[in-house]
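In response to reviewer comment 3 from the previous cycle, which asked for concrete evidence that the modeling workflow produces usable outputs, we include below a single protein chain processed end to end. The sequence was submitted unchanged, and the resulting structure tokens are shown without manual editing.
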Amino acid sequence: MMKKPKLKKINSFTKQLSVSVPWKELKDDYQKLFDRMKSNYTPPGGRKGKVFGIHLELFKKNYTSSIESQFAEDSISKYYKEALDQLDLTPINQGKIIDLKFKHEEDLNFDIEFEIKPDFKLPKYDKKFKINAIKYVPTDQDLSDALSDLQNRFSTMKEINSGANDGHYLLVDMQELDNGSPIIGKKMEKQYIRLGFGAFNNDVLESISGIKKNEKRNVSLDIKGNQIQYELFVHKIEEQIIPKLDDDFAKTVDPNSKNLKSFKAQLTDNIAENFETEHLKSVNNAIVDYFVSKTKLEAPNSMIENYLNHLVENNKSQQPNMTDQQEEEIRNTSKDAAIMNIKWYLIKEEIIHKEKIDVSNDDMEKRKKELIDKDPQNAKNIKIFLKDTNNQQKFFDDILNEKLFNYLKEFATIKVDEKKSDELRKLQGASK
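The workflow returned the following structure tokens.
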């Protein structure tokens, strides 16, 4: 019988397990493996499986080492599982053998290192905890920006034959030049540019203004601080036609609108609702920050690595030609976020288990009904969407998260700092 396994703590999530199994426990299984490999052996000048006398000694000499290795590998898997069951441990990664000793007619001894979900104590949140959250309040500028954005989205393009001016869209070929001569392989065909924006502003705008369809013109563009010469050939010039802000426009955007006034009122409500949603997110984020900062917890290395691997794979699916350097940059810049998210995942899991927070079928049906009532025209699509197993799990997780945060808010004292949305726009402008 296997001896009682010994467990050593490396850190809060890493354990080292020492397992020892006496030879008498291994003997029969070893003999079965030996006989199986012998039955597949063909001695020189003999028949398969007929191994006697000097041929048997030769077989032992040549194959004992590989039999021992195979037997040790099989036995580690078996007795590692038994040891974990005895100690009631569930690894979160594949164990790593750090020491192994085994020979024919000797005990099997091995040390294996693995990670588990770390033990930790939650902060005493049920005694009330304090958090701060910002709430941005919309202003008239938000409505103005929203209307302007809709006008752009519902605009049309009109081709013009006169010379191009500020704000016009040009479909061009861009041939890079070296001292006036075209550089082979450095031509970008049929690119859309807009005069007065980005690299096509200021002096460049002045040099291109007036250009017509099928005309060529040389320009010098500032590309990341470098002046690069291009020859532009114009295929087409278009002017953006912005729709007038009136009742007809309102009905085009939303057929249920009676007029522009009612459309603006609905848009204002939507903006306020979006700001409220963002505020609720900021409250939830503050709760996450509180628990992560107040909980002494290390994120297991294997969970960090899995998180980063998943992130890299997602990026590769969108950018197949990603370089090793870009992959490494993603890993480096995302590591802190990975640690934060893993810590919160472990904390969240513990709270849900401790407080017995769950999502019932009634909860799922109620939420589905709310979605359909809010958007009855898409009732069929919603039902089809929720038949997918992955979508059902996401739906379940979203409701569970909502129930968790609602529960934790019962113990939170929330200090709300109200600010006008103008301040948010300033921050966004400064970050560009």
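The radius of gyration is 34 Å. We consider this sufficient to address the reviewer's concern, and the full set will be provided in the supplementary archive.
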